[in-house]
Amino acid sequence: MTLRVQIVAASIVALGASTAMADTFNVVSGQSIQAAITAAADGDEIFVGPGTYVENLDMQGKGLTLRSTNGPMTTIIDGGGIASVISCDVNVPSDCEPIIDGFTITNGLGSFGQGGGIRLRNADGIILNCIVTNNTAGAGGGVFCNGSNARFFGCVFRDNTATSLGGAAFVALSSPVFVNCTFGGDSASAGAGIWTSDVNSRPGILNCIVWGYEDDSFAGSGEAIVSYSTVEGGFPGAGNIDFNPLFVNFAGGDLRLQNGSPAIDAADSTIVAETLAVDIDGNPRGADVTTVADTGIPIFGLTVDMGAFEFPVGDGGPTECDCPADVAPPGGNGTVNVDDLIAVIVAFGACPPADPTEPEPDRLDGGKPSGSGQTLR
Predict the structure, then answer these.
(1) What pLDDT does residue 367 have?
(2) Are 168 and 141 in contact (CB under 8 A)?
(3) pLDDT of the residue at 316
(4) Which residues are paired to 219 by β-bridges?
(5) What distance, in Å, lies between the first and last C-alpha atoms of the chain?
(6) How far apart, in whole angstroms, are the C-alpha atoms of residue 42 and residue 50?
(7) pLDDT at res. 338
(8) Alpha-carbon distance 297 to 275, whole Å?
(9) CA distance 125 to 133
(10) pLDDT for res 74
(11) pLDDT value of position 22
(12) Among 101, 103, 96, 106, CA closest to 128
């Protein structure tokens, strides 16, 4: 079995697994998620409503599902700066495979110096549609995997800090897999992206964006397996590129894609399981952006984007936005804002003549018109 087939098959089985005997727990703001975990058993489901929950969760070695009802933008688990936000720590490798879906995981301080956001030891699991941000640890600011082959789908890792190794992730005796994840802005003494501590650790990076680490995206003794991903500085592997992904606002933490991003329609669609066919914002994967050439591997004629955020059809481009004032960035972005106003002011003046053989009229400032074509249509 190839790596991509294993990912898809295992994910469908895990996400679709349920039993008639499973119990369901509902947690709303003001209640305790940990209390529900303690009361639950393997196979049970816990649904968490919107709100900020200041807790440090211990999964207690249970293979249960912890899922938000409204996604990570409104459902936040705050570690309070005292311990890892979520821990699944067992002494003996087991079948402990929790599913954690749709949370912002933040303000954790790694328990035992490990995994400020998520700490996994001898435990696998599936983490999807989560934003892991502003966590701190000695090793693995965002996530710490020791003896853990966890799978991460559609997650964002940003602005996590490791005082030693692995700003986004520290990997030891593990081969976790990251699919359609976005990494950016994490920091560490070494391995600002992902640090592998040993030759037996081989993290898989597929359809991801790894940006802002210069030449420190992957470091350590292990070998990262990377394909159809944007990696700053480049990295060997099929379909990998080294082009600025054009985030909406990297400094401000908005790692969505602008129209024209080289990450659009550039991923391997064959590894995106049907049950993972929407992005972290709930937008469908594989929506065709006709203003961008498809460079990835399609499935059923559609090609997904790299990273956690799919560029939504209707958010820009001359075939997708009918708003004539949406001129910046080139092709538009679905919003008329100050960028469009600046573009019009810069282009203000006489337009280039229709006949290219005629001389261009002087502008009032003595210069020539830009010929950018940025006019209100």
Answers:
(1) 41
(2) yes
(3) 42
(4) 195
(5) 53
(6) 24
(7) 39
(8) 19
(9) 19
(10) 97
(11) 84
(12) 101
Q: What is the 3-state secondary structure (H, E, C) of the chain?
A: CCHHHHHHHHHHHHHHCCCCCCCEEEECCCCCHHHHHHHCCCCCEEEECCEEEECCEECCCCCCEEEECCCCCCEEEECCCCCCCEEEECCCCCCCCCEEECCEEECCECECCECCCEEEECCCCEEECCEEECCEEEECCCEEEECCCCEEECCEEECCEEEEECCCEEEECCCCEEECCEEECCECCECCCEEECCCCCCCEEECCEEECCCCCCEEECCCCEEECCEECCCCCCCCCECCCCCEEECCCCEEEECCCCCCCCCCEHHHCCHHHCECCCCCECCCCCCCCCCCCECECCECCCCCCCCCCCCCCCCCCCCCCCCCCCCCCCCCCCHHHHHHHHHCCCCCCCCCCCCCCCCCCCCCCCCCCCCCCC
Distant-in-sequence, close-in-space partners of 249: CB < 8 Å, separation ≥ 6: none
Distance of CA 148 to the CA centre of its chain: 20
- Which residue type does 81 have? G
Question: Would you state the pLDDT for residue 127?
Answer: 97
pLDDT, block means (10 residues), the chain with 377 residues? 48 49 93 98 97 97 95 97 96 80 98 97 94 98 96 97 98 96 96 96 97 93 97 96 96 94 95 77 86 89 93 56 59 52 62 52 38 34
Q: Could you give the CA distance from residue 82 to residue 72 in angstroms, rounded to a whole number?
A: 21
